[in-house]
Specification:
12 strands; about 35% helix; elongated
């Protein structure tokens, strides 16, 4: 019995050592596969950082210098400084030139309004007194011809010469008249007198609409004027100037030649400039 027990004990001891060796080898193989480094105390591996590649580091530094080529030498630093200052002063110069030379909206004031045929106006006054509703739709109404003088203020530091200007007069999107403005030379920062002729053609339907508007609004009437003209600026540069205005009038002022220049009570205009 004792001999048999001893043999079994020796077999178990060998089996234990064999299993321990295999486990140790497997563990060691896994560690060596997953971790790179050096062996410490025979069985523990310690990970170490990869060594720095001096050539690669030098390449990265050189690339950084190339990205900042202005800073590589003193001469280049001065060159880049001059370029930056030149760009800055150029931007300032462009801003100043735009503020000085870009077209600013003009102002205008009616100075004179002359009716060429007073008898034509009398026909409308009589029609208003007798009742505008009674006018037949096929009635012939006389044209109203006006000659005007307008003072134009040019706030720009550049002047120019205008061609013949043309404009139209509307009431509620219905055209009731048209006109032309004579060519003129406009000096920089100056006032100039414009001469315009206006012709008003009222059909019975439009006259009734205007008469109703005037009677319901205390003899006030708002009309729209839209026009444009070609302008030749300095160095022969062509420019088209346009204007759209809402003009609020007091019709009673038209009745007397002495007060006609006061017919416009207020106005709102928008201007456009096309190269």
């Amino acid at each position: 019995f004792g001999s048999r027990y001893k043999r079994e004990g020796l077999w178990a001891s060998k089996l234990h050592r064999s299993m321990s060796s295999e486990m140790s080898a497997a563990t060691s193989g896994k560690i060596q596969k997953d971790v790179t480094g050096v062996v410490a105390d025979g069985d523990v591996e310690v990970a170490l950082p990869e060594p720095v590649d001096a050539g690669k580091l030098e390449t990265e530094v050189e690339a950084a210098k190339n990205r900042w080529c202005c800073m590589r030498t003193r001469r280049r630093r001065r060159c880049c400084c001059c370029v930056s200052l030149s760009s800055f002063f150029m931007a300032v110069a462009v801003t100043v030139c735009l503020s000085l030379l870009w077209p600013q909206d003009p102002e205008w004031t009616l100075k004179k309004l002359e009716l060429l045929d007073e008898a034509a106006l009398t026909a409308f006054v009589v029609a208003m007194g007798e009742g505008y509703e009674s006018i037949s739709d096929d009635a012939e109404l006389p044209d109203l011809e006006f000659r005007t003088e307008v003072e134009l203020t040019n706030p720009n530091r550049l002047g120019g010469s205008t061609a013949l200007g043309e404009f139209k007069v509307f009431f509620n999107d219905k055209q009731l008249g048209s006109g032309t403005c004579a060519p003129v030379v406009v000096e920089p920062l100056s006032n100039v007198t414009l001469h315009a002729n206006v012709s008003v053609q009222l059909s019975p339907a439009i006259f009734k609409d205007i008469a109703k508007e005037v009677m319901e609004n205390n003899l006030k009437l708002t009309v729209q004027v839209s026009g444009s003209t070609a302008v030749t600026g300095p160095l022969g540069i062509p420019l088209t100037c346009g204007a759209d205005c809402n003009i609020h009038t007091s019709v009673i002022e038209v009745m007397s030649p002495a007060t006609r220049q006061n017919v416009i009570e207020s106005k709102e205009c928008t201007y456009k400039y096309i190269l």
